Amino acid sequence: MIKHIIKNEKEYKISKSWLKKALAGKKNLLAAPESKEQPWLKKAQLGPLQGFINHIMEEVEEYEALKSGKIKLPSLDSLNTIPELLIKKRIANGWTQVQMAKRLGMHYQQLQRYENTDYESATFRTLQKIADVLNNGSLSKKPRKAAAYRLKRTSLK
Prior knowledge:
Blueprint: H1 9-31, H2 41-68, H3 82-92, H4 97-104, H5 108-116, H6 124-136, H7 145-155
């Protein structure tokens, strides 16, 4: 799963607003009297709220640290090494281009073209897919919408 990051000032302001509302909600929840019939309810409500607060705080703190220069990022020159790393990782995994292409669900000649041109024509999504296969041995299976719909429809009968 791709981690969400705050990408601009607008998202930053929205996140700060949500954080403020969540913290106020937590304060109100803690101040509310406990239910005699359901003493567990407050704790059950606090758990997810605290998780949400932690998540938003983490995003806000990261954005603020990036803006202030507290987080040092690597040079973008390292992007030039991606094609070489992909090829070396395939070789280190002991896979031929044919084996790798089968794992990717593409014809081996396409993978051969990608490697011969240092992945110049590959989309970012394709590069992510290739990295996923190189790291995990296969593509992570996500149910297709049509298959999920058929499964849902047949289970209702």
